[in-house]
Write a structure and sequence with these properties.
This protein is mainly beta. About 10% of the residues lie in helices and about 55% in strands. The radius of gyration is 22 Å and the shape is globular.
Length: about 350
């Protein structure tokens, strides 16, 4: 029994360590997608109630298996909004992301400048509801890197001895440790209607890597980064003056990869002048698993603390796929931080509670 478990664990490790050769075709994701707005959709630049916003996200995946070389994703962004006429606004933002995948030190680094335009469709600052359509875009640069010396290949496996001979030739021809610096372009749309302070509905979609940049590590070869599409929706449903539910869903696809996260957070607030609120919820993550089709691979538990301008979130992914036998269901933990600086009343705009 122990032999079979060890063999299964080694197979899982092999799959994880071999993933970087295909990983460049799949973007990283956050379980708290709603707390990484500019990574989810460029149209979410400037969509918040405040003068400017600072966001930071950290995700660590499979440290229970990979030890000191887990999958890590770090992102940060800054955005602000400026009125242009009546109740229409321009948003501006800057975002960076660094993603590392496993022992091979495969990494992606990108930086984007973004802008959005918020067009009011109905309501006003004095009306009982507000409705906006927002278009956003990002333009930036990115680069991928990989440490080939940390990888082994089939040519280096000694079948007779049952071991890996790192000194044997790999049979691969790698020219460089990093790709060239590539240009990247993203665009998206978002619509929302706010009926009351805690009654809202929103829906949006985005396309990332519209220009399909070349991310090949081999000189003179082409390996285009596939366009990633995203569709997301959600809102807030009040039960009492203090308690509401924030359901949401985000669906993403990139080449053959498909991912869906859906669930909700309950929000309880003291309804005081200096508002403090807590949120707790559960989410499920679905993805396509080779020939098995779409299946649930994780359940996510979340907790969020709101303190006026500050928002602190933590979540944990509980693995439910076959990998649970190897990692004892210990998937990923994630942190989010959001600071929103209050706006003067004349520059304020009503927005839904996304996070």
């Amino acid at each position: 029994m122990r032999f079979h478990f060890t063999l299964f664990t080694l197979l899982c490790l092999f799959c994880l360590l071999a993933a970087p050769r295909e990983a460049q075709a799949q973007d990283p994701r956050f379980s708290q997608f709603y707390a990484a707005p500019t990574e989810l959709n460029p149209a979410m630049i400037g969509v918040y109630e405040g003068k400017f916003r600072i966001v930071a996200n950290y995700r660590e995946l499979y440290s229970s298996i990979l030890g000191s070389h887990p999958f890590r994703t770090i992102a940060a962004s800054f955005d602000m909004r400026q009125r242009v006429q009546q109740d229409d606004y321009f948003g501006f933002g800057f975002s960076v992301l660094r993603d590392e995948a496993g022992l091979s030190q495969f990494h992606r680094t990108k930086a984007n400048l973004g802008a959005s335009f918020m067009k009011q469709l109905g309501g006003s600052r004095y009306a009982t509801y507000d409705q906006y359509l927002i278009a956003g875009a990002q333009l930036g640069f990115g680069q991928h890197g990989l440490n080939w010396q940390r990888l082994w290949f089939s040519e280096q496996f000694n079948a007779s001895g049952g071991f890996i001979d790192a000194s044997a030739p790999s049979g691969e021809s790698f020219d460089k440790q990093t790709t060239g610096l590539y240009l990247d372009f993203n665009a998206g749309l978002l619509w929302y209607v706010l009926f009351d302070d805690h009654l809202s509905l929103y829906a949006g979609g985005a396309l990332h890597h519209l220009n399909n940049p070349n991310v090949s590590f081999i000189e003179g070869s082409g390996d285009d980064l596939n366009t990633r599409w995203t569709a997301h929706a959600g809102g807030e449903i009040p039960f009492t003056r203090e308690l509401s539910l924030l359901p949401a869903v985000a669906v993403m696809g990139q080449s053959t990869y498909f991912s869906t996260a859906l669930g909700g957070n309950f929000r309880y607030t003291n309804r005081d002048w200096k508002e403090v609120a807590i949120r707790a919820g559960a989410w499920v993550h679905l993805s396509n698993e080779l020939e098995s089709g779409v299946a649930m691979d994780a359940v996510v538990a979340t907790a969020i603390l709101e303190m006026e301008r500050w928002n602190f979130g933590i979540s944990y992914d509980i693995t439910t796929s076959l990998l649970a036998s190897a990692n004892n269901s210990r998937g990923a933990f994630e942190f989010s931080f959001i600071y929103t600086h209050p706006a003067q009343w004349r520059n304020g705009v009503k927005c839904p509670n996304f996070y």
